């Protein structure tokens, strides 16, 4: 229940619906708006997508009324209340399954209890991982081998063992959860997630085969059945679908496109840190100084929910940069912007959706990981794909974040926009863009991945049919076009 998880869920529903499979999205009342407009539009195009709402017990779990999304949780210590409230949706979800009788349940990794729900109805559960194979393999290796115990300080690097590439991290770049032997609510939750995905039918990734050597590593070394069926964002073909993902844009799309149309090819940097990350006022000040010092044109998305305090803008910044820069306060039409040829680089926190959207648009990245699995995503971009540069983020931290200096920001931006090295980044990034496009086209790896998945589901359905399930309404999965 966060934009970074709901946006790909919607894309996934559109994708399977485009193959003739009916998709029903289950969400809570507050989050309906993330899906409803796009569902309406796609229904008009003939795709069978529905939406069903179930209640979320925020107040009963000590959360403010309407706190139905991660970015609305007012403080870190209420995070566990939020997780508990999600688990309490089990009963209502099962009532809904009873009523709708779907052929399979696809649910986010953070709903481990849905494996049991699916089992009660003898239907398969597919786990959706909105992250890279790479980060899961790296995380698992760290948990098993604990290489961070062999270094003498937090800043000394260690190699993540047994990966196809030599990936180095420091203790400061790992979540405290991944280093501690203590059992916490969160570590128990993640254990449940891992156990439930072993018991689930298949794992689906928002990734594609050509992007990561780690698809095979994950399947062989971790012994799980997984399908890469993406990049999901590429299922959005028309301007409205690209522009309105998650929230309504805070800028008129035409105005934004007109501004970009007036710029030279690959000249503008796009700066956006997703839906949750937040910075201290002094870090935002430093970022503004870094962007200005880079001398490049820019679009900068400033979240209004927590950052609309103008005090941190350097004096005269907006006046000085009004020709060069466009500040979007609130929510940007990110995929639409990234697809514009004037955009030459993406300064990102390496949330997996943003990372993939940048890769699919063929744009070099400046990486500024903050938390979650973002430090792994940074390594994938900068050291495996070699389509971007890091600006030296060393500290895994939950928001508000700080610690990066203006000089590092300006230097990293210039490296991916200006000069020969930038040209190399651009060429490599374009190759990955082409691979992404081919992966989702008919006959491509992700296209076939989805075909195989649908085929396997149809086999599951026929071998697991019980007399009771034989009477289900609607076509069985064996009748699906694959
Ligand atoms: N996003 C957007 N406009 C914004 C900010 C974010 O469309 O102004 C979308 C972005 O395209 C991506 C998602 O929100 O699909 C953010 O997911 P990500 O995994 O990158 O980061 P998170 O928000 O989960 O940290």
In short:
With 482 residues, the protein is α/β, with parallel strands linked by helices.
Core attributes:
single chain; 482 residues; alpha/beta; 4-stranded parallel beta sheet; 14 strands; binds uridine-5'-diphosphate
With strands numbered from the N-terminus, the spatial order across the biggest sheet is 11-10-9-12-13-14
Which structural class is indicated by helix and strand composition?
alpha/beta
Euclidean distance between termini CA atoms: 30 Å
CA radius of gyration is 22 Å
Low-confidence stretches: 464-482
Shape: globular
The unique ligands bound to this protein are:
uridine-5'-diphosphate
Helix content: 40-55%
Largest sheet: 6 strands, parallel
Kindly describe this structure:
The chain is α/β, with parallel strands linked by helices. The chain is 43% helix and 12% strand. The chain is built from 20 helices and 14 strands. It has a 6-stranded parallel beta sheet, with helices on both faces. Strand 13 (365-367), helix 17 (374-385) and strand 14 (388-390) form a beta-alpha-beta unit. Helix 1 (3-17) runs parallel beside helix 2 (32-44), helix 6 packs across helix 9 and helix 12 packs parallel to helix 18. The protein starts with a helix and ends in a 19-residue tail after the last helix. The structure holds uridine-5'-diphosphate. Residues 2-4, 7, 245-246, 272, 274-277, 301, 331-332, 334-335, 351-354, 357 line the site of uridine-5'-diphosphate.
């Amino acid at each position: 229940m966060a934009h970074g998880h709901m946006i790909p869920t919607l894309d996934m529903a559109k994708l399977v619906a485009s193959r003739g499979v009916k998709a029903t999205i289950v969400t809570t009342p507050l989050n309906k708006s993330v899906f409803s407009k796009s569902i309406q539009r796609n229904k008009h195009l003939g795709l069978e997508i529905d939406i069903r709402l179930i209640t979320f017990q925020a107040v009963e779990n000590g959360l403010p009324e309407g706190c139905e999304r991660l970015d609305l949780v007012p403080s870190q210590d209420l995070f566990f209340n939020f997780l508990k409230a999600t688990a309490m949706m089990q009963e209502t979800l099962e009532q809904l399954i009873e009523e709708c009788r779907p052929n399979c349940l696809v649910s986010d990794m953070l709903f481990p209890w849905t494996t049991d729900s699916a089992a009660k109805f003898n239907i398969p559960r597919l786990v959706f991982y909105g992250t890279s194979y790479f980060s899961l393999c790296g995380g698992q290796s760290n948990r098993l081998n604990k290489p961070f115990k062999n270094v003498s300080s937090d800043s000394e690097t260690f190699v993540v063992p047994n990966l196809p590439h030599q990936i180095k991290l420091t203790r400061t770049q790992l979540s405290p959860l991944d280093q501690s032997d203590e059992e916490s609510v969160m570590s128990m939750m993640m254990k449940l997630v891992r156990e439930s995905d072993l018991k689930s039918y298949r794992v689906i990734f928002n990734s594609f085969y050509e992007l990561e050597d780690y698809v095979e590593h994950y399947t062989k070394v971790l012994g799980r059945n997984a399908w890469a069926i993406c990049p999901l964002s590429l299922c959005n073909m028309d301007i409205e679908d690209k522009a309105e993902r998650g929230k309504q844009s805070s800028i008129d799309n035409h105005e934004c496109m007109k501004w970009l149309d007036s710029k030279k090819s690959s000249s503008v940097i796009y700066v956006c840190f997703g839906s949750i990350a937040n910075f201290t006022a002094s870090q935002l000040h430093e970022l503004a100084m870094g962007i200005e010092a880079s001398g490049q044109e820019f679009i900068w998305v400033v979240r209004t929910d927590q950052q609309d305090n103008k005090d941190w803008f350097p004096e005269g910044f907006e006046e000085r940069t009004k020709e060069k820069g466009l500040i979007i306060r609130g929510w940007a039409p990110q995929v639409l912007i990234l697809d514009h040829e004037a955009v030459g680089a993406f300064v990102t926190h390496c949330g997996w959706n943003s990372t993939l959207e940048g890769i699919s648009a063929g744009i070099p990245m400046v990486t500024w990981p903050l938390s979650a699995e973002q430090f792994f995503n940074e390594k994938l971009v900068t050291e495996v794909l070699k389509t971007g540069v890091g600006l030296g983020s060393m500290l895994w931290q939950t928001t508000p974040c700080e610690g990066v200096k203006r000089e590092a920001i300006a230097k990293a931006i210039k490296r991916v926009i200006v000069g020969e090295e930038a040209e190399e980044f651009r060429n490599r990034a374009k190759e990955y863009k082409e691979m992404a496009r081919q992966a989702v086209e008919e006959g491509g790896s992700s296209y076939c991945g989805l075909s195989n998945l649908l085929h396997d589901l149809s086999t599951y359905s026929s071998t697991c049919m019980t007399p009771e399930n034989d009477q289900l309404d609607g076509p069985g999965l064996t009748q699906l076009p694959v």
